[in-house]
Amino acid sequence: MTSLPTPSSNQKKLGLVIDLDTCVGCQACATSCKEWNTQGYSAPLNDRQAYSASPEGTWLNRIHGYEVKAPEDEQSRIVHFPRSCLHCEEPACVTVCPTGASYKRAEDGIVLVNPETCIGCKLCSWACPYGAREYDYDHGVMKKCTLCVDRIYNDNFAVEDRVPACVKACPTGARHFGDLGDAESKVSRLVAERGGYDLLPEMGYKPVNKYLPPRKRSSEKMKATPSEPETMSEGKSRVDDFFRWADRLLSR
Amino acid sequence: MTQPKIDTSLKTWDEIKTTTCYMCACRCGIKVYLKDGTVKYIEGNRDHPVNKGVICGKGASGIMQHYSPARLSKPMLRVGERGSGEFREIEWEEALTLATSWLAKVRSEDPKRLAFFTGRDQSQGLTGWWATQFGTPNYAAHGGFCSVNMAAAGLYTFGGSFWEFGEPDWKHTKYFLLFGVAEDHASNPIKIGLGKLKARGVKIVSINPVRTGYSAIADEWIGIRPGTDGLFAGALIHELLRNRKVDLDYLARYTNAAWLVIRNPGQADDGTFARNANGEPLIYDAVIGRPLSAHRADTSPKLIGEVTLVDGRRAVPSFMLLAERFLSDDYSPAKVAETCGIPADTIRRIAAELAKTAFEEELCLNIGWRDWAGRIHDKMIGRPVSMYAMRGISAHSNGFQTCRTLHLLQIILGTIDVPGGFRYRPPFPKPAPPGIKPAGKPGQVKPNTALPGPPLGFVTAPEDLLIDKDGKPQRIDKAYSWEAPFAAHGMMHTVIANAAKRDPYGIDVLFLYMANMSWNSAMNVAETTGHLTAKDEATGDYVIPHIIYSDAYASEMVHYADLILPDTTYLERWDCISLLDRPISEADGPADAIRQPVVEPDRDVRPFQTVLLDLGARLGLTGMTNEDGTPRYPGGYADYMVNHERSPGIGPLAGWRGKEGVFHGRGDVNPKQLERYIENGCHWFYELPDHVKYYRHANRDYLEWATSFGFIGRPDPIVFQLYLEPLQKFRLAAEGHGAITPPEEYRKRLITYFDPLPGWYEPLEESLRDHKEFPLHAITQRPMAMYHSWGSQNAWLRQILGRNWLYLARSRGEAMGLSDGDWVNVISATGRIKVQVKLMDGVNPHTVWTWNAIGKRSGAWALAPDAPEAKKGFLLNHLIAELLPERDGGYRYSNSDPVTGQAAWYDLRVRIEKAEDGSGISAPQFPTLKSFGWIAGRRRA
After folding, report:
1. A4, closest residue in chain B (CA to CA)
2. Which segments in chain A show pLDDT lower than 50?
3. pTM over 0.95
4. CB-based contact B888:B749 (threshold 8 Å)
């Protein structure tokens, strides 16, 4: 079993804030993640039977679409839900690891797998209630989101590019990266403003990543009073009335 | 336990090169990371005007496209029957010699017997010019089956359009209507824009039969019945007029609302504009009390009131005709509600919201500007309502007029090119319509002679049509004939059927590029492959004798061609994203870009554009050969990009022109131009100063600048054509007026559909089908990760979506006893397919839909024959007829918009029946195509 680092008083908690109100489900984060990580720290992310009847590969981020209708909603909605490791403060996937391969970094809270010591027992994937870990059958080790640990501190990138590949890619700006341990950080303020929430808080793993819920819909956003319904038989007078109004002095 | 030490500054690459994405039509800037000459990672280029650093799901999968096992590797010559997949590999010299011999024969006898059609071609500036030089009018790209309704309606109405012609003012708009935009359209630009609206809390309303993709994040979804958007927009116009929420000043200044229309029923001038001796249209001046030229600035034009002209004829401002139409009961919310499937109250509320935003939340930018007449204004007033529309409008046979109606809605609110509204992207606006006429009239197509002008352009009168004295079409696709007079992008979807029927004539060579015409780009696939393999009974030869095809991948079309010219991937080539073609400009200024080869091909393939220039030189085409007969561009496409001049100082690339590279827009050839592009990340963007960022249709400084850049011929204001006189000229011709009149069988159709006023009519195919027998609409869209791409053979994207389903409304499905995964037969008047369903709430109850182009033919694209794309996936194309049912004396019109010839993919009506299934395989299935296999199974290193 693997122990967790003791959090410091001002513990850095790097993570993602994902805006479900803005995500259109375009898969940019998923494929950008795949292409970065298949050549980066997690490399390679396998693809099996890639051109055959049942292609399947390892992904560190998958997008699911759900059609939902809350009782108060007039219409159903389709919500796109990107799913990846939440870098929990108390991750069972770490504590369950028999070799110490699965670990939480003391300095920033990122949960990683050490491929050198991972024996591929899969206990961690059983322990994770979020389904965030994927087993790499080609290499016999567990793979998971690294929060692009090989990008966010990477001196070879310009400062503004030191963000996870998924955040860099996202065309709608639905993904935000930062320190959720700092209440004044941009991401923490976003969570506070928008009512960001934890997935399955009752499990007690204290996910660091937060999701921003879909915003209230139109009726609250815009109030205009529609005119009285038209009267059918008055077509001609409707035109004449309009002509009288529109017949005015205009200039070119 | 100690934490492992890891290197967080890994450098997994040794080089980064910039270029332009080609995974769809957006043409974003990308940075390609390379290690030992292998592509490792592709990301968005932060400095690029189109995507500003982001990348989409497709773009980030480009690496797998580049290393796809479906890549072709060598020229091939067919040795078996068409469709058999029996080819032999040949050398390029043999391939080019053979192609030249076929093409030279055609050119020396009758150039129009070459039909040269390109699909997802991003080099139309070159391909169109090549066709002109060859001398065939039979050229177009895929616009005729994609978006010509939008382009034509916009260009004829206000000299701009949606898509790359313009964009919502994402920064300032306060209310956004999104009409019929499939979730796959305009990948990053629209996503970036929607993200901005979301961040500002702007209300987004999506009008779409299906609530996926962009519609999913809209604040309000209006699940309209397909093909009725024009009626809905018309009802919004009705409400705005009825409630006096119209910008009359804007109409008087910038539109032809005040232009006087002659009322002279039955006569040759009826419905045309009253004009003075100089041919200038007239308005009636309220102060002076008589008609004056509409071109004058110092007038007080009346929008209301019948006028007697000097010669006694009666005339009315065109605005009266518009108002009468849209104030009629036909466009009242109560009347349209049922047809559109939208409650009348909802229509009235949306109209009220539009009015409130436009007129009560007026926007004012403190930026001075000078109007077309030289008058100085100290601020820019904006009405912050914006709209965007695309495929769901375009792909119906009423799409042209529907799109015109949407533009009318934008214009009566005063929202075109104002702060918060819809902004042009330079080189637009252009005159409405642009002044180019299509070439290819009888006498213009001559052996061994170039056409006198480009094959595509804008018809404004019957005199411009490409027909002979009997009214017979001159183009193989019948574009610019009485059947589709405004076919500004050609009609690629009719080429194969017409050629096989030799209607209007037979051809000798069909030359296609990047167009999967034997599969997902064909209406009625089985019939199309039949056309491609049809033989002449007398000679035993194929009716289409020679088919040349260029593609990078083993698509279904490869199997039906005779000579294959294998293209490179997008990372192995030069390209120019040119202002002479489909531009990538932003509203803030013009832009263009290049592709540079970031890796060398590892196969015996050549970039198509270089091959085309080579063929042009071998054929001795004037623009492609020097006087001594040597090739003009021996360095291939890159040579052309730098050294070609379309007119003096205007070339494919606008940036860094002149010997020193200091001129932009117009300037001499710069031998180091490509180096300058590469230094700048392979793109060029010229940001306009603030005073020319709005009101550009009437902004003198903008118009003068645009003239200097060659975007427009003269700095005249662009007047919006709400009443479209060219349509009336066709109506008059159909009534028997004028020198050129249509044959009898076309007359009723022209009189019906060539309405100079925007409006709505029921889509053609729908109007000819029994709605009880076929109660459902059937439409398609591509998944967001596969827009405009060749994506479903991509190893990553096919893991995300490797098959499609037919989606229908839960209420309807449950009433039929259907649940997810059940099999149904989908039956149209043309054919039937057997597919699996899924139920959902977010779809119009009278509509079924599916993902387009996921279904593949077994054996194609180097996929396993039992791939889900082939065995579970399907196309709706099998249900769609390329011709409408017989009418007007047995003639069958193409399944297209009667004005523009746009393919009417979404007019389809079907019924569904629960199917018993034992096989678990979708139907129809076609024989498995033979795999080429040369690089099958190859993966990236």
Report:
1. B1
2. none
3. yes
4. yes
Tell me what pLDDT residue B791 has.
56
pLDDT at B146 (0 to 100): 85
| B717 domain-assigned | no
A110 lies in some domain: yes
Residues B113 and B249 in one domain: no
CATH number at residue A90: 3.30.70.20
Residue B614 resides in a domain: no
CA B316, B318, B323, B329 dihedral sign is: positive
Instruction: Give me the helices (H) in B341-455, please.
Output: 344-355, 391-394, 399-412
Residues 305-364 of B with CB under 8 A from A: 305, 319-320, 323-324, 327-329, 332-335, 344-345, 348-349, 351-353, 355-357
Q: How far apart are CA B419 and CA B429, in angstroms?
A: 16
Span B667-705, pLDDT tens digits: 999 999 999 999 999 999 999 999 999 999 999 999 999
How many Å apart are CA B615 and CA B308, to the nearest integer? Answer: 61
- Name the residue facing B334 among A28, A232, A248 (closest C-beta): A232
B120-135 pLDDT, tens digit per residue, is 899 999 999 999 999 9
Mean pLDDT of chain B: 95
Nearest alpha-carbon partner for B652 in B30, B126, B22, B20: B126
Domain that holds residue A163: 14-216
Judge whether A249 lies within some domain. Answer: no
Q: What is the dihedral of CA A68, A69, A70, A74, to 10 degrees?
A: 150
Low-confidence residues of chain B: pLDDT under 70: 1, 787-792, 888-889, 933-941
Find chain B residues with C-beta within 8 A of A19's C-beta: 198
DSSP string, B348-374: HHHHHHHHIIIIIS-EEE---EEBTTS
Domain hosting B93: range is 84-146+444-569
- What phi and psi values does residue B8 have, to the nearest 5 degrees? -95, 5
pLDDT in tens, B559-591: 999 999 999 999 999 999 999 998 999 999 999
Among residues B432, B399, B427, B409, the alpha carbon closest in space to that of B155 is found at B432
DSSP B675: H
Tell me, what's the pLDDT at B185?
A: 80
